[in-house]
Amino acid sequence: MKIKRWLAALLAAALLPVSAFAAGGTEADKRQEDLDFLVQTLTEKHPDFYRNTTKQAVADKKAAIESTIATASDIDFAISLQELAALAGDAHTMLSIGSAGAQVHMLPFAPEWFDGRWTMTGGLREYKQYVGSEITAIGSVSMDELLERLKPMLSNDNDTRLRVQLGGNMYVFEVLAHYGVVKGDEKTVPVTLRGTDGKETVLDMPILTAEEETALGDDGFINKKLLRSAVPATEPDSAVIYKLLDLGDGTLYMQYNKCREDENLPMAAFAAEIKEKLDSGAYSKFIIDLRNNGGGSDGVLYPVVYQTQQFLAKGGAVYALAGDRTFSSALINTVQLKDVDAAVVGTPTGGSVDHFGSISTFELPNSKMRGQYSNKFIDMADYLDAAKPYDVESFPPDITVQPSFADYLKGVDTAVQYILDHAPVTPVLTETAKVSSARVTVNGKPVAAAAYEIADSNYFKLRDLAMAFAGTKSAFNVTWDGAAKHIQLTEGTYTPVGGELQPLTGGDQTAVRATSDVAIGDMPLVGKAYEIAGNHYFKLRDLCRMAGVSVAWDGKTQTIALTTEDASAAA
């Protein structure tokens, strides 16, 4: 691998697409126009730009930029604009600071997070013996202090994402100069490393232009891939969107690198292949690896989430691998998998549970720098119970497994090996169902739908809900194929079979995870279901989300208020 490709990849991750200042872009009036455009775009089009900042803070930052608008270098001006965008406290809202007109220089080392610390995983060939050492300082600035200095330019909404952003900027000389880590006129920059023996070494890193770093090639630059003795089967494969591997010992592995469809292998067909394998009885564990997935569309994985739900209900073990590169829609998928009882293994996610998202892009009129802003705030607790304990913060793993550099060099995937080495983690399939005291209304009218409370959530009999929604645009019919163990919900008039909307009797009941297939139209229904006395009970939010019914809870009256789409439109 050429060093040019390595540095370009890191620079792209840190700075987003590289953009060039247009001719005359350093003129104060054109910079002022770009600044005004940026402020107007972010404050008017972002759904809540002032959620994490104030109008005064934005005004002060704008004034600070204006005070040097005629004298700042291109890169310093760009960094200042990015600092303004970062005031949103939104990991999705940012501005490119790359500029072909202002050449960016690099320190030739690769920083990565291994073993809970910053590790040098590559550098000039003469530094080979130091690969694997902990990075403790750049210049005279410790890593903790470096984070604090660079923090104003790093778009983030949690500490994990902040650390990821730091990793993509700490080797950029102009960024270090902007924040006073270096003076800006050095020929070399000292980087302090600590070996496994605790001994510290200071390496004087040269400052390289793009042409100089390209000229190094593999002969002049050593990276971690050149040092390992083996490559694990689960090595991230950027050439594929998703793939399956049989890891042996009854473990099926799915690598999911982008939240989008593979045009050559639609997700529905891929999910059918997963179903066939999981139904074969050959597997006790199923791993879904989202560690290197930066997002896209969260709905793409839906058919696979359904298959994991069914596998879990039959006693299988499902693991979602997540980490600091699990972001945006991949974060949503991780929470979805947890919601159906998958075990999350790895480290806290780079994406926050509640977060701004759904981006739009823009371009500044003169410098042509590109940026993006969010269009909505996503409160995951409105959709998934697994999100309720969390706010704007990383989603934590159930089982923490830090990536190990020693394992990497041996060709061992630490998190996957943990799963292979330990007994399957399976969900509880039998629960106590207590008669719920909650009242229910549909479009303001009381209905007699009775519910059981299972693991702190209300579950309703499917046919009760079908009867309750009769006469609305959310009305659906229920059919049962006993031979195929399939429940089909279809839009339209419900046909009663008797026993609907009857009070529950007999007190507490035993609820067993249902394994029947359930579909609404041609879409499988993702969500835990239980069988109680021969009837299927579903979590209200799961069914209502698919049926287009909003759910609200009134704690004072202990009432669940359901509103169908036609009633919402009329209001």
**What structural category characterises the helix and strand content?**
alpha+beta
Q: Please estimate the helix content.
A: 25-40%
Beta-strand residue fraction: 25-35%
- Count of DSSP H/I helices: 16
Distance N terminus to C terminus? 60 Å
Q: Characterize the main sheet.
A: 6 strands, mixed
List keywords for this structure.
571 residues; alpha+beta; 6-stranded mixed β-sheet; 6-stranded antiparallel β-barrel; 28% helix; 27% strand; globular
Entry summary:
The chain has 571 residues and is of the alpha+beta class. It has 16 helices and 30 strands.
Describe this structure in words.
The structure is a single chain. The chain has 571 residues and is α+β, with helices and mostly antiparallel strands. A 6-stranded mixed sheet has the order 9-10-11-12-13-16, with helices on both faces. Helix 2 runs parallel beside helix 4.
Strand and helix map with partners:
Elements lengths: L2 H13 L12 H18 L9 H13 L6 H13 L7 E2 L13 E6 L2 E8 L9 E5 L2 E2 H8 L8 H9 L5 H6 L9 E7 L5 E7 L3 H11 E3 L18 E7 L2 E6 L10 H13 L5 E5 L12 H12 L3 E6 L6 H11 L3 E4 L8 E9 L6 E9 L20 E2 L4 H6 L3 H8 L8 E6 L3 E4 L2 E3 L3 E4 L2 E5 H7 L7 E6 L4 E6 L17 E5 L3 E4 L2 E2 L4 E4 L2 E5 H8 L2 E5 L4 E5 L1 H6 L1
Parallel strand pairs: 10-11, 11-12, 12-13, 13-16, 18-30, 23-25
Antiparallel strand pairs: 1-15, 2-3, 3-8, 4-5, 4-6, 6-7, 9-10, 14-15, 17-20, 17-24, 18-19, 20-21, 21-28, 22-23, 24-27, 25-26, 27-28, 29-30
Helix pairs in contact: 1-8, 2-4, 3-4, 9-10
